[in-house]
User: Fold SUN domain-containing protein from Caenorhabditis tropicalis.
Amino acid sequence: MNESDLVLLDRPNPPANRAWCSDENEPVLTVNLANYIKPTAVSYQHFKWNRTVPYGSPRLFHVFACLDFNCEKTEPLISNCEYKSSGQIQEQIYPIPLNSTTKSIGKVQFRFLKNHGNVKKTCVSLVRVYGQSEDVPKIRENKGHRASCSYLRDTYHNSPFIYDRFEFKTCERLFSNGCCSVCPECCDECYIGSYTFIEYFILSILCFVAGLFGLFVFWCCLTMLLSGLKYLLHLCGITINTKWF
Assistant:
């Protein structure tokens, strides 16, 4: 059942008939966050229930941070979160360990392992992600960043090859410089592991060496061409000023 367009965030009273459901054995739900945050806790809240959690509601799940746009690279935030039927607590919060090294992220992934009743279909009502947003850059410091953000936006749309290969576009840089308001599409497709300064330095050295090699080949070809021309002129009995060769 494809309900990927349903909004599962910020719903005060999740309706029972508007849940994200899946028949998969261990369904996975990926959520885009409104802002890049350093996560501190996650929570789950099923639609209103009394005494017993309905069958099919999540019982045990893991939460992962997405490190790239397609969530192909992840790292665990918290494991074995259990939604309990005891205590009549509708929203149950699971703090992320304080020793977590996860930086600012814009996407999380919930992996549901078991549901209540061990039935075939799992239905998810409401998930929340709590966290701390980065400090907003000061206005004086932001003027120069705005210009660079505009440049990145223009490059993103007009020169995608250059943007993809030669621009510093890590999520940390885009977010800390306030580029998400200028180019939200850049932030949507940013990479945690984009090129580092060392990689750019090595790439520059390789380009420089390749340029020198190209000049050397050009000089060799030019020398051979001039030597051949000189030989042909000699066969034709044409005397030339040899100092030019």
